[in-house]
Amino acid sequence: MFKHSQFESVKAALMHPDYAKYPLYLRIQRALRQLILDGELPANHPLPASRALAVSLNVSRDTVENAYSLLHAEGYIERQVGSGSFVAEVPLLHKPKRKTTGRPVDQASIQLSKRGQKIFNNEGVRETLTPRPFAPGIPETRLFPLSLWARLERQVIRDYQFKALQHSDPQGTKELRRAIAHYVNIERGAHATPERILILTSSQQAIALCAQVLLDEGDNIFTENPLYQGARKAFNTAGLTSIPIPVDQQGMRVDLLKQHPSSAKVISLTPSHQYPTGATLSLERRLELIEWAEQNQAWIIEDDYDSEFHYAGKPTACVQGLDAYQRTIYIGTFTKSLFPSVRIGYMILPMQLVAPMTTARTLQDGHTATISQLTLARFIENGHFGAYIRQMRQIYAKRLITLEQLVRTHLKNFIEPMPPLGGMQMPCVLIDRVSEDVIIEQAKQQGITLISLSSLYIGTPKQAGFLLGFAAYTEREMELAIQVIRKIFIENTG
């Protein structure tokens, strides 16, 4: 017969918040099913008559009948006319279960491939879900013209109907590729055609594709030092050996690259706003780099992740636009210039790489959402993108000035700001003998995100300090956070 505890388990299921979204008969069915799976109701155990269970649970008999019928259809119970309902005799269903200790699974016992273990050890690229000072690389979303975007999206659905719900060309819709080509040719001095553009979900995906398609495990790749942690992890995961080239106020030291005893098929860099220093690669060095790539038959990965936000003078033309030899792969993204959830990035490729890269992309995710692509195309073509960038450029420039002033006023004894010419984050160098890790951990406990500068370097020497994002935070939000950081510094240096 049914025990009191079993009745109570079924009653509890009716009130459990996890089951609240289900109708009553499903709540009863799931509770009984769990009792069977847990071995609380063994094989051939009789179930209460539907009328008796209905009275006990204060529900209708039809509700219990529906639950029993579903359990019977799934094979958990047998029903015999005149004899009632019984738990089914299924050997594997009643196999004794190994008891769990409730302790975390020992990571050493999980068998991953070498590549899988390397991916796991790299911890991925963790982005802050809810912006909080001073997480870098996050745009301001509260000022985005959401109603305008929604109107353009409705137009897309009206004009394309069910075609907008179908698979997109894995290379990207021709509408968006055409809009991007026109924009980057005018604004970035690029040499792009729609046929050479590959639409992706992010710049991170583009970097990973380059690492996998252009290089073999064990190959060298030249990188800036310091460098973006997402690129470094992508290269490590692909089994590449990163060879660091120092950076100064004019960007990567191309002279040291040319003198380096090692060779590599690829060089990766962020020439517009070097991550994390913010330095801009000089025109002379850009031209030197292009000549080096041609002479060595190497590829240049140009990550132009936030080039729209330049605050002093006109931005230098992108490397891709200067490269007559077509050795440059240009990477751009709208997750920084618009909003993170748009999930649209792109590459401008040398023509001979379009087919290989597009094929490789299909093995990852097939294509980017069609409606988002078509909406973004209209946002660009109608001039809204350019207008929005101009607005945000002014706002970000003011926020950068504010952050620099706050640091110089409240943290002058601890860190020295290094304001960049553009971008969405400002590096600050430690001038006080205090641990980066201690400050970062205590700031985290106060809801503040700080990125360690030294963690972005390969080898030594390393520059200690922090990378402070400012784009997504108002002047007041930054001021409050700086006051908290000041207290943390005082407590650790007093």
TrEMBL record:
One of its GO terms (molecular function) is DNA binding. PROSITE patterns: HTH_GNTR (PS50949). SUPFAM superfamilies: PLP-dependent transferases, Winged helix' DNA-binding domain. The keyword Signal does not apply. Keywords: Aminotransferase, DNA-binding, Pyridoxal phosphate, Transcription, Transcription regulation, Transferase. Residues 22-90 form the HTH gntR-type domain. SMART domains: HTH_GNTR. The keyword Transferase applies. InterPro entries: Aminotransferase_I/II_large, HTH_trans_reg/aminotransferase, PyrdxlP-dep_Trfase, PyrdxlP-dep_Trfase_major, Tscrpt_reg_HTH_GntR, WH-like_DNA-bd_sf, WH_DNA-bd_sf. In the C-terminal section; belongs to the class-I pyridoxal-phosphate-dependent aminotransferase family. This is PLP-dependent aminotransferase family protein. It comes from Nitrincola tibetensis.
